[in-house]
Design a protein that fits this description.
Length: 72
């Protein structure tokens, strides 16, 4: 199963996103990334599962998504 990394930019959006996704059955964690200045403060959500559903949940919940990356 693919692992997805969703860049939110701020810890506030990351926490809000994590909580929304957990309420909807996703297993998700927050990580701080370094080295990529284009992603704001550098907070990402890491999860597996239906990325289209997760993205919809986050957008409907008002979480700003900067970038989504799929990893093996």
């Amino acid at each position: 199963m693919k692992r997805y990394v969703i860049a939110t930019g701020t810890v506030t959006y990351a926490i809000k996103g994590r909580d929304l996704l957990r309420k909807n059955g996703f297993t998700v964690k927050i990580e701080r990334i370094t080295g990529d200045n284009t992603l704001g403060c550098g907070y990402v959500l890491i999860l597996t599962g239906d990325i289209e559903k997760a993205e919809k949940i986050l957008k409907n919940g008002g979480v700003k998504i900067l970038k989504i990356t799929a990893e093996q």
